[in-house]
Design brief:
Blueprint (H helix, E strand, L loop, with lengths): L15 H22 L59
């Protein structure tokens, strides 16, 4: 006679929150696929460009001419007499 009984650790039922989450993910994926494929109503446009877009005229548009911009004055060369000189790093070789 066995004193120790096996404790069931795996449940055969699904949690309600997991089922709701899985169904919502599947529904959103299907809606996204339908939107990309153009299967949703109201997403189709006529071959002539559709009525919902504004008409573009073929007349050239007048563009304003900008005033010429003066070139900036040349900056004086920096005074390098007070700056420290860069030192070259010594080449160190290891003797192992």
């Amino acid at each position: 006679m066995a004193i120790i009984k096996k404790i069931p650790t795996v449940s055969s039922s699904y949690s309600a929150l997991g089922v709701i989450a899985a169904i919502s993910v599947i529904a959103l994926c299907m809606a996204g696929t339908a939107a990309i494929a153009g299967w949703l109503p109201g997403q189709h446009r006529a071959a002539d460009g559709g009525d919902d877009l504004p008409q573009v005229s073929s007349a050239p548009q007048a563009t304003p001419i900008a005033a010429p911009v003066a070139a900036p004055a040349a900056a004086p060369a920096p005074d390098r007499s007070m700056q420290p000189r860069a030192r070259r790093a010594a080449h160190v070789t290891s003797t192992t």
